[in-house]
Amino acid sequence: MKNKIIELFSVVMVLCIYFSIFSINAFAANAVISGFDLVDSNKHCDYDANQSSYGSYITTAVQKWNNYKAGILRPDTILTIQDVKIIDTNSSNVIWAGKTEYLSARIQLNSYYLNNSSWNYNNRLKTVMHELGHALGLGENNYSLSTNVMKQGKSENTTLTVDDKASYDLAYTYY
Ligand SMILES: [Zn+2]
Q1: What value does the mean pLDDT take over residues 109-138?
Q2: Mean pLDDT of 128-140
Q3: 169 near 72, Cβ under 8 Å?
Q4: What is the mean pLDDT of residues 68-91?
Q5: Ligand 1 centre and the CA of 68: distance in Å?
Q6: pTM for the model
Q7: How confident is the model at residue 10 (pLDDT cuts 50, 70, 90)?
């Protein structure tokens, strides 16, 4: 009888340990924010992409973010104050395909990489989504096994993950 109890106890312990590790890996989201954002006090990020050649990517990327939180990213109008300007650059002497600058309220998209023949549609879309994520206040989220949009580097990650959503939720609390 005593052996049975010990055996049962061991099984329960193993299950507890298994579930605690499993839950950390499978369910706990990794929220990372940058500490800055380009969202105004009305909780809008009004962007001007008139000078960018990646307009269709920007529209799709905006839809993907707004599908999670509606109406935050908006193209600016005559009646709104611009929160971020999106421009193209062509720089071979830098390592980034996209860059968000908080102080100058600007996103630069680097056609040197984006238009490279080794880059596909989703590589470009992910870059635009990633930079818009920075504008929304999200930080680099480089958990190695993840497919986060906010993971650095060239990828085809164009679906918001639990990490991306948790990061957006956290960033939102600072708007
Ligand atoms: Zn980044």
Answers
A1: 98
A2: 98
A3: no
A4: 97
A5: 20
A6: 0.85
A7: low
Per-residue tokens: 74: 């908006």
Integer Cα distance of 34 and 121 in angstroms: 27
Q: For the sheet with 106-110, list strands across it.
A: 73-75, 45-48, 84-89, 106-110, 98-101
Angle subtended by helix axes 55-68 and 121-135, to nearest 10: 60
Asked whether residue 28 carries a pLDDT value surpassing 90, the answer given is no
Distance 127 CA to ligand 1 centre (A): 9
Q: How far apart are CA 124 and CA 156, in angstroms?
A: 8
For 36-45, write each residue's pLDDT tens digit. 999 999 999 9
Handedness of CA 140, 146, 152, 158 (dihedral sign): negative
> Distance from the CA of 93 to the center of ligand 1, in angstroms?
18
Question: 126 CA to middle of ligand 1, Å?
Answer: 11
Q: In this structure, which CATH number among 3.30.200.20, 3.40.390.10, 3.40.50.740, 3.40.30.10 belongs to the domain 31-172? A: 3.40.390.10
Burial class (CB in 10 A: 0-12, 13-18, 19+), 18: exposed
- Each domain of the chain, given as residue ranges in start order, spans 1-30, 31-172
